[in-house]
Amino acid sequence: DVPKVADSRGDSDGSRRGSLCDRHCAAINNVQGDLGDMGCHLHRPRVPPGRLAVGWTGHGALGGSHTHCDPVSPTAVPTPSCCQQHSEEVCESCVVKTTLTAENAVEANKLSNNYKFGFKKWKSHVTARPWEDRSEIVKELYSDLNVIRGPGGSTLTCGNILYLLLFGWWLSLLYVLVAAVMFITVTGAPYGWLCWDLAGYFLWPFGKVIQKVEVPKSQQVCEAGAGESSALLGGPTPHRWRPQCWAGTGHWHRAGTVAWLCLGYPALALAHGLVCVTAWLLIVLMPVAKLSARATSRVLLLPPERVLIRRLRMTEAPLEGEVILCCYRAANPYYYKYTVHGINVFAVNLLPLVLVTLVLGYVDSSNHLSGSATKFTLALLSIMPLSYYIGMAIASISAQSNFAVGAVVNATFGSITELTFYITALIKGSREGNRCYAEVVKSALTGTLVGCVLFVPGLCMVIGGIRHQEQRFNSRSAGVSSALLFLSVGGVFAPTLFSKVYGKLVCGECHNVTQNPLGHYLCHNCHFDLMDNNGTLYYSHVQPLVYTVSILLPAAYLIGLFFTLKTHTHIYDIHISDCHMPGHHHSAVVHWSRWRALVILLLSTLCMSACADLATEHISPILTNSPISQQYFISVTVLAMVPELPEIVNGIQFALQNNLSLSIEIGNCIAVQVCMLQIPILVLFTIFYPTNFTLVFSDLHVYASMFSVVLMNYIFMDGKCDYFQGTVLVMVYFILLAVYFFAPSPSGC
Q: 171-184 burial string, b = 16+ CB within 10 Å, else e?
């Protein structure tokens, strides 16, 4: 029994046609086979509580017949609903029903928010995923290096060789030196033998195992011959046990232990700490970080007689002792998926950079330790993890709250990253009386608009098109965003067009090329002056138009929200589906509670303000000392796209899962928010804090923005795309970047 889709019109004719479509769906499903083999039970299933599925219905949904219902991740499961023509009854359009599964109600709410206009699209989970539902690749990422596997091929891999070149040789040499020191102390000779064995292990630890074994009795050790074997280990007794018979006091009271803790362990712990931090930052070498951390915390703190190092290929009988370390590979490319309390490892690694940036920026205010270029770069890099934390906090709060709270949080903090930088730059420009900061803000706004319209969807099309030959998306929802984008671009650039028509053209320098007073003149640095006659044109005509546009654009945004989320919700038809995996029941264990997410959101916003202040503080030397017009280029690229990197990554991940609708919506929603929320907020901010920001853009900004919007709508017209169309969008974006790169600086900067 295929779940029926309710017709939003509610009339009898719509119901009759819907029934016909459902009958065709059922017939086609019977022909295609039982989808129960794919884990999607469609025949009167019982959905267990906590195992919810979120569905979406619309034109050109997430196509692809090879995707299946998977509880591991919110994967799209299309159930084709074919509308065939008959003599009397014809369905108006083809509807593709897409079902998304979620482990719990919180994840289902997050997935629903992804398909709502005005809500931040977030790919990462906001709840802990059940361990049994994860793939073997992901399980291996979180497992300790203490599992012995069967023969899995040669250990001579590129990652293992890289370990040898980066860490293995000098770690082994350090262990040899520490072993020599321990032998010199005499009492630390057992630790010297241990370091000697570990020197060979850390030179090439792959295919070897370190065990924690039981200590044989003193009498058995003293009486044992050189060729005797241990029944426990099934092999020869380690030679470092033989020199002494330990009796009397405990191990930690021996003099050798004191020598080890004072002379040997600190140096080795420091070396392993350096290896651990370096390997963690490289991410793909994270098994090496686990290896060093486990060696420091476990192996080096054990009595030497309880540590046994063996090669796995020499082991004939099963090992009975506790396995402490067993490593096969030094590198794993899948560690980009690794998370710490729901936070991606990239965001974790970049978090210390924020602290370094703040300390270096505010302590070294006179630039003794580093220059302005270094501080500007660090401030921009710090914006990336802060944008991630803000996005994660918004998604967590929205998923655990009702619709009203989620809408308020998304509208309030959805653009906080960009607004923080723009307002900080405008304040600094107003204090210094430098109008170049206002031009930087305008260029960044245009760069965000052009990048989100061309680069973000184009890149997602290219990457998604490599895996999927043709991708489809919801053309109706994309049409809503496109209509709002046309409206917003027209409203934003209306004052600019008004100034071109009624403004007075003023040029800085003119030359008569014909030597005739009535001949042709060649002029440079021309612009339309709005302050002629004491600014009558600007204050009486342009400024009221700017305020009117700044009020109408947010109103249009609210109407768009009401249209898509209230009166025409069938465009984003979110419903509970019957697709589930039987036998699983999981309660929602959120990574961040609402209060924790709120605290992180506020702290990230505060740090974002500080980093934005540092970026604007140190951007002036870069702009003034550039041989070419870096102001345009830096603004439309770095300042515009760096805060959007988390959104770009989310869009790519959605595209790889054949979910191009969300990839396109990410770019469209950001572009719409730039025009309908960010620019009006900046205009209203200038009312309370006068700055040099006016809603009059250069010709280059106007032409680039309008051309990008027209091209985007042309590409998205048919509701399907491939990597070629994405390549066209990306290439046009790079052409515009080249234009900005070689464009002369704005007048007055």
A: bbebbeebbebbee
